Amino acid sequence: MPHMAHFALPAVIVTVAAAFVLGGCAQRAPTAAPAATPKAVAVAHPVGATPAPQAAAPPHFDRPDHVRGIYLTAWSAGSKRKRAAIYSLLKSTQLNAVVIDVRDSGEMYWKTGIPLAKQAKANDIAIANAPKLMAELASKHVYPIARIACFRDQLVPKKFPSRAVQLANKKVWSDRSRHTWLDPYNKDNWDYIAATVDYALDVGFPEIQLDYVRFPSEGKSNSQRFPARAKYGDPKAKPEDVIAAFADFIGKRVRARHAVYSADIFGIISSSKSDQGIGQELEKVAKPFDVISPMVYPSHFAAGEYGIKYPVAAPYEILMKSLRDYKKRLPTMAIRPWLQDFTLGEPGQPTVHYGSAQIQAQIKAVHDSGYDDFLMWNASNRYTEAAYVTVPGQKS
Questions:
Q1: Residue 141: left if φ>0, alpha if ψ -120 to 50, beta else—which one?
Q2: How many whole angstroms separate alpha carbon 317 and alpha carbon 191?
Q3: What is the overall mean pLDDT for the chain?
Q4: Confidence (pTM)
Q5: Domains and CATH numbers, the chain
């Protein structure tokens, strides 16, 4: 999701105040499910695994024909009052899904019981009763997606610097926003994220969405050192090879549980043949997933991108151009873009208030590009209800 520390948020009808939790990438984003992914998702333990003891089996969720969702912090999801507002929003609109934080920037918001989380003091519990919440979501026919941020981590590097991206002097490296990162070459870090994925599947999430599934950006990359690189096993592995291998590693356990596997990626990578220095080369990073969600926020495109003077003022046009690139390069891939329900002023571009017209223009561009699924991002979980009462391609 985006680094959006200073939004001027739009006027909204539904207000779900929450901590200003930032998402996965500097740009933040499927359509019809691929044939291999069943609509009815049953969560089962892999052969040979011992299920964690629990009072009852996790609920079953049917995947909607078209997933149209919103982002929720774990704090919003854990609040009875805020959930009531969200249920009201979903009931009155074409929205039907929620993306909920399980892990973000190192914090674990659910009682995962993972030892490393306790050791790193990463437990910041927002969901006190996971079975109750999941049962409630099922009863309301809400499709939940577990958002799990991967390599950006503020907490493990403090306790275990050897697991982090470092400087030459072995101190922990940080990006321009002072966030620290786990070393993607370190397979112990892979296991930590895998344990988080296992937990989300155990409580009943029918879909796992990875965020920050990349190398760090927004900092001096030439000062980065990766302590585990020498022991990785493939001295010729490029960052995109490491990210693809990690995604495949996680994907095998997700598919063993018959769940859907998705990921957030930089929106801009569809127009580049490189990995943008972060390990996200489009075809390679997309391959392990059932669905990818490019973060194609109009405000995050630079002035002049795709020949459009001010992308933030042309939400339909900029998304049409970007999503056509995705369709061209990944013609059979399920794409579920992240769209913006927030106002953000960008240097060199006018500040454009994002209300119903701008939101519906984005959704129309998604539909006109041949896709029907989308996710909406607002870091404070405030959404413009009127924009979602009807959407292209679906009856009101």
A1: left
A2: 42
A3: 86
A4: 0.85
A5: 40-388 (3.20.20.80)
